[in-house]
Design brief:
The protein has twelve helices and 19 strands. Helices cover 30% and strands 22% of the residues. It is of the alpha+beta class and 455 residues long. It has three domains: 5-68, no CATH class; 107-195, Pdz3 Domain (Roll), CATH 2.30.42; 199-372, 2-enoyl-CoA Hydratase, Chain A, domain 1, CATH 3.90.226.10. The strands form four sheets. Strands 3, 4, 5, 6, 7 and 8 form a six-stranded antiparallel sheet that branches. The chain has a six-stranded mixed sheet with strand order 10-11-12-15-16-19, with helices on both faces. Strands 1, 13, 14, 17 and 18 form a five-stranded antiparallel sheet that branches.
Length: 455
């Protein structure tokens, strides 16, 4: 093999802190045990592969069509090592590291989508609520194949993300492949400062509440507690049942997922992690403080529910605390640790797998809902043509007695929507949520069976 020894030594020294650190002459001699450990480490190095690496490095330096700096080549080498491991391990340089920290804090610039890599293309894990991407119609599962006039194939995930970021107000055209569409879709999105409000609530009526968690940020656990307190006050002090919506939630901070799960559990395991390092062996348990006091729950999930949202769904499912409704989740069952390398750079490395309380690994499998419900679109047009005959349609039927209200007046008809149009029923706007609400009402009713009526 024809090697340039100078380059081989240079590469070995550059990688010394990772692969092997040569001993300086001025340092004291090692004891026998340390010397033996170092000798074993050196013997384990794949020297043939290192020589091959050095030869390729030399050939690129001398023969590539354009001059490339050593720093750039070595950064590509690091990124290549990590991309060959799994889709989530990566090298974060400068702005990439800053963007990650901004994302976990809840404010960053861009389009508002959580992405990964699949077959060399950028895959949308989920759009983030109330962002330019969601408003433009980007959907979970979309494959982005072009960014403006640039092909995504061949880019790293970091390079693609850099292109999608930019000055607020600057447009970018995404070309996407979507299941069920014959041709690629071209979607133009205007960049904006993304401020993620990860928690929202809503009164669904009849004592039923709705809690939406769109992302798990460092403060999400506290936000859920405050939002639930506010919702309880809005609903008159009692929540008889809750729909927890984790659809299109791409995950986030592990601690936030544990905190949200703990808010509805009184005891037991929430999640545990296992990896090669002892520090990655962790267990997380619930404290006795169920915010719903045992009221029934239904958790909504879909293919955009990933990572931390799967931890919550898995914990509540295994602890038999909630019914899971929707379609199977994304299936990301690994934990990434951020390891700072220099002041502005970091290594995002997969260091563990997480497991639900019953010992299930979700990796590449996902959470299977207890009740499988697709997100259907219900159209009521034409239903009037199939109207069935009822008592009121019969000639000579008895009229209903008019019952006055408490003040002696007839009840007023229901108010129309604020804009003068009839508000669409939930079954038309969100079929899965409508089904979850129906099930929740049944569960709440079942809990009241056998209780003495109030007098």
């Amino acid at each position: 093999m024809n090697l340039n020894l100078r380059h081989l030594l240079g590469v070995a020294l550059v990688f010394g802190s990772v692969l092997w650190m040569p001993q300086a002459a001025a340092e004291p001699a090692m004891d026998d045990e340390a010397a033996e450990a170092e000798a074993e480490s050196a013997a384990a190095l794949p020297l043939d592969e290192l020589r091959t690496f050095a030869e390729i490095f030399t050939r690129i330096k001398s023969d590539y069509v354009e001059e490339v700096s050593d720093r750039e080549l070595l950064e590509h080498a690091i990124r290549g090592m990590l991309s060959g491991l799994d889709p989530h391990s990566t090298y974060l340089v400068g702005d990439e590291y800053q963007s990650l920290r901004e994302g976990t804090s809840g404010q960053f610039g861009g389009l508002g989508i959580e992405v990964g890599m699949e077959d060399g293309f950028v895959k949308v894990i989920s759009p983030i609520d109330d962002t330019p991407a969601e408003r433009a119609g980007i959907q979970a599962g979309d494959l982005i194949i072009r960014l403006d006039d640039r092909q995504v194939k061949g880019m790293t995930l970091g390079e693609a993300v850099d292109l999608m970021r930019g000055e607020p107000g600057a447009p970018i055209q995404l070309t996407v492949l979507r299941e069920g569409e014959e041709k690629p879709l071209k979607i133009t999105i205007e960049r904006a400062i993304i401020k993620v409000k990860s928690v929202r609530t809503r009164d669904l009526g009849q004592g039923m509440g709705y809690l939406r968690v769109s992302h798990f940020q460092s403060r999400t656990g506290d936000d859920v507690v405050h939002a639930m307190d506010a919702l309880r006050a809005e609903m008159g002090g009692e929540i008889k049942g809750l729909v927890l919506d984790l659809r299109n939630n791409p995950g986030g901070v592990l601690g936030a997922a544990v905190a949200v799960s703990d808010a509805f559990l009184t005891e037991g395991l929430v999640v545990y992690t296992q990896g090669r390092d002892e520090a990655s062996m962790q267990e997380y348990r619930a404290a006795p403080d169920d915010m719903l006091h045992g009221a029934p729950m239904v958790v909504l999930v879909n293919e955009g529910s990933a990572s931390a949202s799967e931890i919550v769904a898995g914990a509540l499912q295994d602890q038999q605390r909630a019914l899971i409704l929707g379609v199977p989740t994304f299936g990301k069952g690994s934990v990434q640790t951020i390891l700072p390398v220099r002041e502005k750079d970091a290594l995002k490395l997969t260091t563990a797998r997480y497991y639900t309380p019953s010992g299930r690994s979700i990796q590449a499998e996902g959470i299977e809902p207890d009740i499988l419900v697709e997100q259907l679109k219900v159209d009521r047009s034409g239903l009037g043509e199939r109207k069935r005959v009822k008592e009121v349609d019969l000639a000579g039927h008895l009229e209903q007695d008019e019952e006055p209200g408490a003040d002696g007046a007839k009840p007023e008809p229901a108010a129309a929507a604020a804009d003068g149009e009839e508000e669409k029923p939930l079954i038309e706007t969100d079929f899965q949520l409508n089904e979850a609400l129906n099930i929740l009402k049944g569960l709440a009713l079942f809990q009241t069976v056998g209780k003495a009526p109030e007098r």
